[in-house]
Design goal:
Helix 9 (196-204) links the parallel strand 8 (189-190) and strand 9 (209-212). It contains 10 helices and 9 strands. It has a single domain (2-48, 80-221), classed as TIM Barrel (Alpha-Beta Barrel), CATH 3.20.20.190. The longest helix has 13 residues, at 107-119. By secondary structure, it is an alpha/beta fold.
Length: 225
C-alpha cells in the first residue's frame, strides 16, 4: 500500500504550502495530494475552499482574485507548476483533485492536462474529483490519464455505477460502513486516514493508496522502513 501526503504533511505544516510538501518528501511519502482551483488570471492554484476565509482569514473568493492578490493575503500560496517541479525532482507520485462547482467549469481540467503534457512526469499522476462531469471531461481530453472517482455519501451509488474512472476514492468512514467496496475490482484511494486503527484496516483490506495528513506516522504504524 502506498502512502500519499494529504495536502502535504499537513499535520506539521500549513496545508498545500511548499513546507508541507517538502516535509512529505522528507517523511518518505510515496506521493502527494493537492486540490486545484483556477484564479481570475487563469493560474492553477493549490487551494481547497472556494474562498480564503479558513486559511487566510480573508473573505475573498479564489475565482474572483488574481494570483498576485491572493499572495498579498497569503504569501505561501502555491501554484500547481511549483508542486510538479518538486514532484519531478523527487520522483513523487501525484493525486490532483479538481474542485467543483466553479465558475470556470471544465476549464480547470483542460488547464491541468495541458500543464501535465508539458511537464512529462515519470511518476504516476491521477486526477480526482467528486464531479462525475469533471472525470468524464478528463477522459475526453486525454483518455490515458488515470482518474479517481471520489465518493460522497449522497451520490456514491450513481458515481460508482456510471463513472468511467478506473479507481474509486472513498473516505475511510465510508469504506468502514461499506466494506463490500473492497470486493469490487477497482483499486481504492482512501482519504483522510490519520488514525492508526484505520491505517491498519486499509492495509488489511487491500487498499492501494492511503491518503493521510501524517505520512511519517503512517509509515511507523504500517512498519515501513
Amino acid at each position: 500500500m502506498k502512502i500519499y501526503a494529504h495536502r502535504g504533511a499537513s499535520i506539521d505544516f500549513p496545508e498545500m504550502t511548499m513546507d508541507a510538501y517538502k516535509a512529505a518528501v522528507d517523511q518518505g511519502a510515496d506521493g502527494m495530494e493537492c486540490d486545484v482551483r483556477l484564479t481570475k488570471d487563469n493560474q492553477l492554484l493549490l487551494w481547497h475552499d472556494a474562498d480564503m476565509k479558513r486559511t487566510a482569514g480573508f473573505a475573498g473568493r479564489i475565482a474572483e482574485m488574481t494570483y498576485p492578490e491572493i499572495r498579498k493575503h497569503y504569501p505561501q500560496a502555491l501554484l500547481l507548476e511549483e508542486l510538479l517541479e518538486l514532484a519531478r525532482d523527487n520522483e513523487m507520485e501525484l493525486a490532483i483533485e479538481t474542485k467543483h462547482p466553479v465558475p470556470q467549469g471544465s476549464a480547470v481540467e483542460k488547464k491541468v492536462l495541458e500543464l501535465l503534457a508539458e511537464e512529462e512526469l515519470t511518476a504516476d499522476v491521477v486526477i480526482m474529483s467528486f464531479s462525475w462531469l469533471a472525470i468524464e471531461n478528463v477522459r475526453k481530453i486525454n483518455p490515458k490519464i488515470k482518474t479517481v472517482a471520489l465518493l460522497e455519501d449522497r451520490f456514491n451509488y450513481l458515481m460508482r455505477r456510471f463513472t468511467s474512472a478506473p479507481i474509486l476514492g472513498p473516505s475511510v468512514e465510508f469504506l468502514r460502513s461499506n466494506p463490500e467496496l473492497t470486493q469490487e475490482s477497482k483499486p481504492l484511494y482512501v482519504w483522510t486516514v490519520d488514525d492508526g486503527d484505520d491505517m491498519r484496516f486499509c492495509s488489511d483490506n487491500g487498499v492501494e493508496v492511503l491518503i493521510t495528513n501524517n505520512p511519517s506516522y503512517a509509515r511507523k504504524v504500517l512498519g515501513y522502513h
